[in-house]
Design goal:
- By secondary structure, the chain is of the alpha/beta class.
- It folds into four domains: about 50 residues, ADC-like domains (N-terminal domain of TfIIb); about 200 residues, Rossmann fold (3-Layer(aba) Sandwich); about 190 residues, Dimethylsulfoxide Reductase, domain 2 (3-Layer(aba) Sandwich); about 110 residues, Barwin-like endoglucanases.
- It has 22 helices and 27 strands.
- The strands form seven sheets. The chain has a seven-stranded mixed β-sheet with strand order 5-4-17-16-15-6-7, with helices on one face. Strands 22-26-23-25-24-27 form a six-stranded mixed barrel.
- Helix 7 packs parallel to helix 12.
- The chain starts with a strand and ends in an 8-residue tail after the last strand.
Length: about 700
C-alpha cells in the first residue's frame, strides 16, 4: 500500500465546479474533501461526496462500442478508437457531401467545460447546428435579459439592503452560498424568498412567499404597481435610461392586491408586507433562478417582469442592485471570456441553412447562438425545413425533453447517431457508435471565467488529472480534437489538440499555459477587473433603443407583446378532470438528472421514485405514505409511490425528473413550450393522482 497523496481537481457532476481535494493511493481515489481555497470553501454536497462511487460505477462505458442489436436494445460489440473514428468520419462526411453540413445536428448535455471547443468544432464542420441542454436550462434567462437590457446581470448582494431570492435554494444547488447569505443577514440585509415549496433556505428568509408555480410574473407586476403607486421609483433613472415606462405603468395597474392574491394563492397581508419591504429598502438585488422561472409557457415574460422592478426602482446597473455582466461600450468591456467568442466565431461558416427551430422560435434564433433542441425531434421526423440525417452528441439525455417518447422515436429513425458519455444510459443504447468519456478526476481541464461566483473574480485555471483515465475512456476535448483530424476539417488549432487550444485561448490573457500548469490554483487575469456598476448607464444599453426596455422592440418586431405580460402558465386542460398542478424537475439534493439513477449510495435517501403531495390532498384522496399511486396528465400516466409532505402546498405536486421507471417528462406535452424561448413548461402541468387499488385477494 502506498502513502495517500492529496491532488486538486473539481467536481463536474453539476455546473458548480466545486474544488475537490482527492486523496489518491496506488492510482485510485480513496477519499474526497472540499478544497478550502476554492469558492466552495471546503464544502461539498451529497453528490460531491459520492464521487468515489461515481468514478468506479460498474455501468461505466469502458471501450468504444458499435451497435449490433436494435436501437434501444443495448447490444454492442467493442471496437478500437481507430475503428470508431474512421466509421464516424465516413458517415458524417458522406452526409455533408450529399445533403450539406446542416444535415448533421451536434448536441451536448453535461458536462459544460468543453463547450467553447465543441462550438468551434461544429463551425469548422460547416454548420450552425450546435445545440445544448441549455435549450431547457439557462439560455432563456440570457434571452430575457438581452431583451430587457442587452446583457446578463448579477445580484450585488454584498452591498444590498434587501435580497429578493426568486427560486433560490443553495442547500440543494450551490451549497457554499448559504453561509454568505447568513453572514449578510447578521449585518442587517433582509431576505424575501419566493418559492412554491418550503425549503431549507425559505426557512431562513425574513419572509417566504409560497406562491403557485408559474405565477411569478403576476407577483412582480403587483410589486411594480405598488412601487409606482407609492412613488417608490427612481424618476431620474427612468427618464434617462428606461424605455416604455408609460405603457408599463398603465399595464401594471390591472395587477391589484386582490387579483394577484387570487392568482398566486398567497395571503393579501403577506403580499403587502413584501411590497412594503421593497419600498422601504432603496437598494434591492434580485436573484432569478435559471430554471424555476423559465420552465413555464410564460417563462420569458415572467422573468422580464422581475427585472423590470430593478429598472423602475433605479437598481439596475447600480451598487446594491443588479449589475450587467457585459458592457455596452467595448472600451470599458472588462468581461472575461478568455477569447472564447473569437475562438468560436473566427471559423463561423457562411451561407448555411437556418438553425434547427429558427422558423418556430425566431426570437430564440435571433438572440441565442444555438439551435432550439426542443424542435429537434419534429425536424427529424418531418424532415422540414430540411432533413437531419445524423446526430453527434456528447452527454445527451433524452429524458430531459418533454414528451421524450417523441425524441426516442426520432432517434430510432435518424440514419446515424453517435453518443459520448460516461455511463451506459438509455440514450446511449440508441446510438450506432458509443464512445467512453472520462470523469473530471481523469482528465486535464482548462477553465476561464469568474470563479468567485458572487465575488466576481476574473480568473483562469488548469487542472491535471488526479488518476489515469479508467479503461479506454478519453477526455471529451481529446475526442473532439482527434476526431477533427479524421473529419479533415482543416482546423489548424483543433487538430493540434486540447493543449494547443488552451494556449490559443490564453494568447491575449496575460497568463501563460506554463504558469497555469505548475499550480492547481486559479490565476487572476492581469488587467481584468470585476464588473463595476454604472458603465452601461453611462454609455447606453445594448438594446434597439439603447435603454432598459420595459417594452421590448425585438418582441414587438416578431409579433409578441412588447410588455412583460402575464398569462396562465398551466396547460389548457379541464381543471375538474385534472385538479392538481404538477411541477416536474425540482431539485433533490442527492440527484442530478439521470447521472445518479444507478447510484447505490443514492438509494439510501430515496430508494424509489416518489411524488410529493400535501397531506391534506392525500387525505382527500385516501392516500397514505409510500402507497402506490398513478400520476396522470392529459398526455399519459406513470406509477410511483406517494411522499406526503407539508413542504408543498395544497393543490400542488412535485416530481423529480429522469427516472427510467417513472419518467415524468413522458407525461408532459411535447408542445407545452414557451413560444418565445421554446422552453418546456415542466413546472406547470395539470394532473391528477389516484390510488392504485389492491388486487383482489391480495393481503
Amino acid at each position: 500500500m502506498g502513502i495517500p497523496e492529496v491532488k486538486k481537481t473539481v467536481c463536474e457532476i453539476c455546473l458548480n465546479n466545486c474544488g475537490v481535494d482527492a486523496w489518491v493511493e496506488d492510482g485510485r481515489v480513496v477519499k474526497v474533501e472540499g478544497s478550502r481555497e476554492c469558492p466552495n470553501r471546503g464544502k461539498l454536497c451529497v453528490k460531491g461526496y459520492a464521487s468515489r462511487e461515481y468514478i468506479y460505477r460498474e455501468d461505466r462505458i469502458k471501450t468504444p462500442l458499435r451497435r449490433v442489436g436494435a436501437r434501444g436494445e443495448g447490444r454492442f460489440q467493442p471496437i478500437t478508437w481507430e475503428e470508431a473514428y474512421t466509421e464516424i468520419a465516413k458517415h458524417l462526411n458522406q452526409y455533408k457531401k450529399e445533403f450539406g453540413a446542416d444535415s448533421v445536428a451536434f448536441y451536448t448535455g453535461y458536462s459544460k467545460w468543453y463547450r467553447t471547443l465543441f462550438h468551434r468544432f461544429v463551425h469548422s464542420f460547416g454548420t450552425l447546428n450546435y445545440g445544448t441542454e441549455s435549450s431547457s436550462c439557462f439560455q432563456a434567462v440570457r434571452l430575457a435579459d438581452v431583451l430587457n437590457a442587452g446583457s446578463l446581470s448579477r445580484p450585488d448582494i454584498a452591498n444590498t439592503d434587501l435580497f429578493l431570492a426568486w427560486g433560490f435554494n443553495p442547500f440543494y444547488s450551490g451549497v457554499y452560498h448559504f453561509d454568505t447569505i447568513e453572514k449578510l443577514q447578521e449585518k442587517g440585509m433582509k431576505v424575501i424568498c419566493i418559492d412554491p415549496r418550503v425549503t431549507p433556505f425559505s426557512q431562513l428568509a425574513d419572509l417566504h412567499l409560497q406562491i403557485k408555480a408559474g405565477t411569478d410574473g403576476a407577483l412582480a407586476l403587483f410589486f411594480g404597481n405598488y412601487l409606482i403607486a407609492q412613488d417608490k421609483i427612481d424618476h431620474d433613472y427612468i427618464k434617462k435610461h428606461v424605455h416604455g415606462f408609460e405603457e408599463y405603468r398603465e399595464y401594471v395597474q390591472g395587477f391589484t392586491l386582490q387579483r394577484v392574491a387570487k392568482i398566486t394563492g398567497e395571503k393579501e397581508e403577506k403580499l403587502v408586507q413584501a411590497a412594503q419591504m421593497l419600498g422601504e429598502n432603496p437598494h434591492f438585488a434580485i436573484h432569478e433562478g435559471a430554471a424555476p422561472l423559465t420552465h413555464h409557457r410564460n417563462g420569458v415574460q415572467n422573468f422580464r417582469a422581475l427585472m423590470a422592478l430593478s429598472a423602475i426602482s433605479g437598481n439596475y446597473d447600480r451598487e446594491g442592485g443588479n449589475i450587467p455582466t457585459e458592457y455596452a461600450n467595448p472600451k470599458v468591456n472588462r468581461d472575461c471570456d478568455v477569447g472564447d467568442e473569437t475562438f468560436i466565431q473566427e471559423v463561423r461558416p457562411k451561407n448555411t441553412k437556418p438553425k434547427i427551430g429558427s422558423e418556430r422560435f425566431p426570437v430564440w434564433s435571433e438572440i441565442i447562438d444555438e439551435f432550439q433542441a426542443m424542435d429537434l425531434s419534429r425536424q427529424i421526423l418531418e424532415g422540414t425545413p430540411y432533413p437531419i440525417k445524423a446526430i453527434f452528441a456528447l452527454g445527451m439525455n433524452v429524458r430531459m425533453f418533454p414528451g421524450d417518447t417523441k425524441l426516442f422515436e426520432a432517434l430510432r429513425s435518424v440514419e446515424f447517431f453517435v453518443d459520448v458519455d460516461i455511463f451506459m444510459n438509455d440514450t446511449a443504447k440508441y446510438a450506432d457508435i458509443v464512445l467512453p468519456a472520462c470523469t473530471s478526476f481523469e482528465r486535464s481541464q482548462f477553465m476561464g471565467g469568474f470563479m468567485g461566483h458572487y465575488y466576481n473574480t476574473p480568473s483562469v485555471r488548469y487542472l491535471s488529472p488526479v488518476i489515469q483515465p479508467l479503461y479506454e475512456s478519453k477526455s471529451d476535448a481529446d475526442i473532439l480534437c482527434e476526431l477533427s483530424r479524421y473529419l479533415d476539417m482543416e482546423d489548424s488549432v483543433l487538430s493540434k489538440g486540447h493543449e494547443a487550444c488552451t494556449k490559443y485561448l490564453l494568447r491575449k490573457v496575460g497568463v501563460t499555459f506554463s504558469e497555469l500548469k505548475v499550480t492547481s490554483a486559479a490565476a487572476r487575469i492581469p488587467g481584468k477587473l470585476p464588473y463595476i456598476p454604472g458603465a452601461n448607464t453611462e454609455f447606453g444599453y445594448r438594446t434597439p433603443t439603447g435603454r432598459f426596455e420595459l417594452t421590448s422592440e425585438i418582441l414587438r418586431r416578431h409579433g409578441f407583446s412588447p410588455l412583460p405580460t402575464y398569462e396562465e402558465s398551466a396547460d389548457e386542460q379541464d381543471e375538474n378532470l385534472y385538479p392538481l398542478q404538477l411541477t416536474a424537475g425540482g431539485r433533490l439534493p442527492y440527484e442530478f438528472h439521470s447521472r445518479f439513477q444507478n447510484s447505490r449510495w443514492k438509494k439510501y435517501f430515496r430508494p424509489y421514485p416518489m411524488v410529493d403531495l400535501n397531506p391534506k390532498d392525500a387525505r382527500d384522496l385516501s392516500i397514505r405514505q409510500e402507497e402506490d399511486v398513478v400520476l396522470e396528465s392529459a398526455y399519459g400516466s406513470i406509477c410511483l409511490k406517494a411522499n406526503l409532505t407539508y413542504m408543498v402546498d395544497q393543490g400542488a405536486v412535485f416530481m423529480y425528473q429522469d427516472y427510467k421507471d417513472a419518467d415524468v417528462n413522458s407525461i408532459i406535452g411535447e408542445n407545452h413550450l414557451d413560444p418565445i424561448s421554446g422552453f418546456p413548461g415542466y413546472r406547470s402541468v395539470r394532473c391528477r393522482i389516484t390510488k392504485v387499488k389492491a388486487k383482489e385477494g391480495a393481503k
